[in-house]
Design goal:
- The structure holds two protein chains of two kinds.
- Chain A is of the alpha/beta class.
- Chain A contains twelve helices and nine strands.
- Helix content of chain A is about 35%, strand content about 15%.
- In chain A, the strands form three sheets. A five-stranded parallel beta sheet of chain A has the order 3-4-5-9-8, sandwiched between helices. In chain A, strands 1-2 form a two-stranded antiparallel ribbon. A two-stranded antiparallel ribbon of chain A has the order 6-7.
- By secondary structure, chain B is of the alpha/beta class.
- Chain B folds into two domains: about 160 residues, Rossmann fold; about 130 residues, 3-Layer(aba) Sandwich (Rossmann fold), CATH 3.40.50.920.
- In chain B, the strands form two sheets. In chain B, strands 2-1-3-4-6-5-10 form a seven-stranded mixed beta sheet, sandwiched between helices. Chain B has a five-stranded mixed beta sheet with strand order 7-9-8-11-12, sandwiched between helices.
- In chain B, α1 packs parallel to α7, α3 packs parallel to α5 and α9 packs across α10.
- The relative contact order of chain B is 0.12.
- Classes of the chains: A alpha/beta, B alpha/beta.
- At the A-B interface, α5 and α6 of A face α3 and α5 of B.
Chain lengths: ~290, ~300
């Protein structure tokens, strides 16, 4: 299914009412595969579904994952690797059955994405490295007089890393307007809420101060994301979208940090950063997904 | 070797427009020939070495051959994980250039000493490591390895005047070089310290001991067969490096001797003591750590007489 073009703005197409890569299908894959592999990192995958749906449905210009002049995408928050696999699978870029090797033996589909897997542009997993690579990829495109763009998805907690700001400075100084960053702003990190660990609440102001064209929007609106990321600005500044997301989006007990059947654990916002689902929890999640609007 | 590096890079860049030079805001009075000749392929990344390696990774994926330059500790150690997860994990042709082998930045103090870069980076099997002993070998090594498909680390001395007698610039990946033959003892060394080791061999010769000198100029591929063959005719071996001993040249030689069952005794000279806050000129640092010509000669005598 093709994305539906809904209009034109400054010569560029504006998308999307029915994204080709449906968020519900992505969530189903994330829940199925997390359950099958009995692994966690479900919450951070669920909250970037719409971002990846927008990117892989309509934003990324790539005829194939092997086209050297394709747009590049870096999932700098590599712990959402399963969400990327879901998008790649629905895009038709993963071989049939590849998803079932997620977290298997000798697999290319580990928790964090590896560039050895066709469709993954860069290996990630260590926070703070993706944007530096992205800045290099954007600079390379400009030096090669290519119109390809670079998209990099980072997390809000990733902004704890000093290297993010090294890259931020560099990209702004060199006016890498072909570099687009999306911050998955879910307010959580591994051991607590971002505001409690290292407060970065005024994230947009910080990026603006670094010289970036900064937008804030609903990270679960595929159309808003697609429009923002596809829009060709006349600005010479690199572009960042602070995408406000809900951790564990689509599964209410995950959003609330409640371990439904794992009763030895207290409710805590970050529980579903780590926990795998019990059978009952999986059933609840799938039921909620199927009944969602 | 700085001038040799830049001159050779200019020569290669004239033939291959994939070559770009990045610096972490260092290289004053060294980088200029490249910057003037290839202004669009020269980039000062600022004092941000992690980002510099990330940039190089992104550029290499797009088809460039980026050389990322800084003082050895800043080039190799500060962004170590960026090197590991970037060029090494992706097997991309990034060239990291670490300037200032061993104690070359003498008065600058321990923060500037390149005494762990080889040891640390030898932990990354996918990274070719090149350690030229003098300017002529540096030029040949840079030429010979510029088109290696994976990443390369160059540990370069900044002194342009060093010459190792008998080396004549020879370099081959996976091989050692033997600038001096001898029968009584084998001296194995690497990098800009090789000239000092050659001087020690000369001094030993005046005392009636003929020392052979082997220069190890690269790892990954390790010159294991070559070194084993060289050492097989000796009963006494002294390795000399301006590096900490864990994982460095001495560790490599010990591994070759043990795994091949060679019948020789090794004494590994290098940096054995932790930094104590002191600094001084390179030659004084060598004396402090027993890797100057006097220390080498003394250790050879001790080893042989035991």
């Amino acid at each position: 299914m093709k994305s539906q073009i809904t209009g034109m703005l400054e010569g560029r197409e504006i998308y999307v009412t029915q994204p080709a890569i449906n968020p519900r299908d992505m969530r189903r894959i994330i829940l199925d595969q997390s359950k099958r592999a009995n692994v966690g990192h479900i919450g951070p995958c669920l909250c970037v579904v719409e971002i990846l749906s927008a990117l892989y449905s309509s934003v990324l210009r790539a005829n194939s994952p092997d086209d050297p002049d394709r747009d590049r995408f870096i999932l700098s928050k590599g712990h959402a690797g399963l969400a990327l696999y879901a998008a790649l699978s629905l895009k038709g870029w993963l071989p049939e059955g590849a998803l079932d090797s997620f977290c298997g033996d000798n697999t290319l589909l580990g928790v964090h994405p590896e560039a050895a897997l066709r469709g993954v542009d860069f290996t990630t997993g260590s926070l703070g490295q993706g944007l530096c690579i992205g800045a290099g990829a954007a600079l390379a495109a400009r030096m090669q007089h290519s119109t390809r763009r670079v998209f990099c998805l980072i997390s809000d907690a990733e902004c704890n890393e000093g290297s993010v700001w090294e890259a931020a400075m560099f990209a702004a100084h060199h006016q890498l307007s072909n570099l687009h960053v999306i911050v998955d702003c879910n307010g959580q990190q591994a051991l607590g809420l971002t505001r409690d660990v290292l407060n970065i609440s005024n994230l947009a102001e910080r990026w603006r101060a670094f010289g970036w064209r900064t937008e804030e929007l609903d990270g679960h609106s595929v159309s808003a994301l697609a429009q923002s990321l596809s829009h060709a600005s006349s600005s010479e500044a690199p572009h960042i979208v602070i995408a406000h997301t809900v951790f564990g989006k689509g599964v209410s007990y995950m959003q609330a940090g409640i371990p439904v059947t794992q009763t030895h654990l207290p409710a805590h916002p970050v529980n579903w950063h780590y926990l795998p689902m019990s059978d009952h929890e999986y059933g609840l999640a799938m039921a909620e997904l199927e009944h969602a609007d | 070797m700085r001038k040799a590096f830049i001159a050779t890079l200019c020569e290669l860049a004239a033939l291959d427009d994939r070559i770009v030079l990045l610096t972490g805001d260092l290289g004053h009075l060294a980088m200029e020939p490249f910057r003037e000749r290839f202004p669009n392929r020269f980039l000062n990344a600022g004092v941000a070495e992690q980002n510099m390696i990330g940039l190089a990774t992104g550029m290499a994926e797009a088809g460039f051959l980026p050389y990322a330059y800084s003082i050895a500790t800043f080039a190799a150690l500060r962004p170590f994980e960026f090197i590991r997860n970037g060029p090494v994990l992706h097997q991309l042709p990034v060239r990291v250039v670490g300037m200032g082998m061993g104690f070359e930045y003498g008065h600058s103090g321990p923060t500037h000493y390149g005494v762990e870069d080889i040891s640390v980076l030898r932990a990354l099997p996918g990274l070719t490591i090149v350690i030229p002993a003098d300017s002529d070998q540096a030029a040949n090594a840079i030429r010979d390895t510029y088109n290696v498909s994976g990443p390369v680390y160059y540990s370069l001395g900044k002194d342009d005047r060093i010459t190792v007698p008998g080396l004549n610039g020879r370099f081959q990946l996976g091989k050692i070089q033997i600038p001096r033959k001898g029968v009584d003892v084998a001296l194995v060394t690497m990098g800009s310290l090789s000239q000092e080791v050659a001087a020690a061999a000369q001094e030993l010769s005046s005392q009636g001991l003929e020392a052979a000198v082997a220069v190890v100029s690269n790892f990954h591929p390790d010159p294991e067969d070559d070194l084993a063959e060289f050492l097989s005719s000796f009963r006494h071996v002294v390795s000399v490096e301006a590096q900490t001993l864990s994982g460095g040249l001495g560790a490599f030689a010990a591994g070759v001797i043990a795994s091949r069952g060679l019948r020789c005794k090794l004494r590994a000279l290098g940096v054995r003591t932790p930094p104590d806050g002191t600094s001084g000129p390179q030659e004084e640092r060598w004396r402090k750590h027993g890797i100057d010509r006097g220390g080498i000669v003394r250790n050879v005598h001790e080893l042989i007489s035991n």
